[in-house]
Amino acid sequence: MEKRLHNPSAEVVLSCLEEKYLKNEVMLDEHCFVRIISGEVKIVLAATSQVYGPGDTILFPRRQLSTVIQYPKDNKAYKCVLIILKGNRLKEYYSRNRAYASTERIPAVKSYKKHPLVESYFASLLPYFELQEALPEKLLALKIEEAITILRTIDKSVDTFLADFSEPGKIDLAEFMEKNYMFNMSLEKFSYLTGRSLTTFKRDFTKIYGITPQRWLINKRLQLAHYLLSESKQKPVEVYREAGFENLSHFSYAFKKLFGYAPKEII
Q1: Residue of 190, 179, 235 whose CA lies nearest to 48
Q2: Is residue 54 classed exposed, middle or buried when 0-12, 13-18 and 19+ CB atoms within 10 A define those classes?
Q3: If residue 212 lies in a helix (H) or strand (E), which one and from where to where?
Q4: Domains in the chain, ordered, with CATH?
Q5: pLDDT band at 104 (very low <50, low <70, confident <90, very high)
Q6: pTM value?
Q7: Of 11, 134, 196, 218, which cross-links 201 as Cys (Cβ 3.0–4.6 Å)?
Q8: In what order do the strands lie in the sheet with 40-44?
């Protein structure tokens, strides 16, 4: 269930997950400022993972590949408030406010300790979700600007990516794919994130690996699944999504085709 202010712009969202467990592969088009109200969320990146719970506040940058797992905790559903910081709002803001210079390395997901500005901000938003009418655009714009201003007040390095409106540049394709192959994204998304057109991505990929991206991705994911099954002693139903497959039957078929035996046969 979601409650949105000023629908359909959906820049401020109260999300409540009634289901027991939800897992998604995510790559946001916009930065997202999040306060966890209840339940927990686990964010899995290429090299790390972190769990956030009630009272935690995080900033999730755009164009970040991740697996997001949301689930209830202490008999309470997963619930959060999301502030989506759209590019047009940020461009307008930075046209009036000079960005801070910073050389600090920005983590993929930033978390913030409790701060009076953050606490009062999210507390002020909750009553708005009870409105029967749309929130006035001027008030919505003020609340978005307030969020940006608070972030810049408590984190002097945040301008490093909030004020960055560039598109992805061409990067080392092999290094990127080795780190991110387990994320179940389309080839279009992979090509975009490596700064290439789809045609150039396929051409460069085949030149490096000698096979198509589709075949390489399946093989890498199956090898990861084999490791998880044999070393971590997990069950196929626990592994197939983590390895980047959409359904168990396709995973089992591909696994047996590559290794000659079914996933459940690994002891």
Answers
A1: 179
A2: middle
A3: none
A4: 2-162 (2.60.120.810), 173-265 (1.10.10.60)
A5: low
A6: 0.76
A7: 196
A8: 22-26, 66-71, 40-44, 49-52
